[in-house]
Amino acid sequence: MEPSFWHSKWDAKQIGFHQHEVNPLLLKYWSNLNLSPDSEVFVPLCGKTLDICYLAELGHKVLGCELSQAAVEQFFTENSLAYSMSSVTASAGKLNQFDAEQVVIYQGDIFALTTNELPDVKAFYDRAALIAWPESMRLAYVEKLAKLVPPESLGLLITLDYPQEALKGPPFAVSNDWVVANMNEFFDVELLSCEDVLSDNPRFVNKEVPWLTESVYKLKRKH
Ligand SMILES: C[S@@+](CC[C@H](N)C(=O)[O-])C[C@H]1O[C@@H](n2cnc3c(N)ncnc32)[C@H](O)[C@@H]1O
Question: What is the number of the ligand 1 atom nearest to the C-alpha of 132?
Answer without folding.
Answer: 1
